[in-house]
Amino acid sequence: MINIELAQRLKEAGLAWKPALGDRFAIPDRDLDEEVFVLSNMTIEVHTVPEGQVIGFNGTTEWALDDVEIDETTWLPREDQLRELLGGTFRALRRDAAGYAAEIDLLGAERSFPASTPEQAYAAALLHLLASINQ
To answer: Mapped to the 3 state alphabet, what secondary structure does the chain carry?
Structure first.
């Protein structure tokens, strides 16, 4: 799993979250930075209200949360989600003694993004991709 800091960088780079069951997320800046929440259809669900989408904590007394706006959360995408977000630019994930490297091809330019875990390598490649889109 990527850490909250890397997930926050992806969010700031423009990564949009379309919440789905099983997605993990954090709620930074509320003394909950170390907690990871998971969307489920029993306890934590996305509700659409006139003001937008909120995440509702059904039947929970933990941290006295009723709901939180999507904008106040940070999505923690899984390895498969990060790879899928790379789309057609993704070429390979390679492993060596130093760790992993996600390889992408962006407009004919091949790039490699080394990291200690596959998730971090995919996230680094995705940050690069988002930066190139937002130029």
So the answer is: CCCHHHHHHHHHCCCCCCCCCCCEEEECCCCEEEEEEECCCCCEEEEEECCEEEEEECCCCHHHCCEEEHHHCEECCCHHHHHHHHHHHEEEEEEECCEEEEEEEECCEEEEEEECCHHHHHHHHHHHHHHHHCC
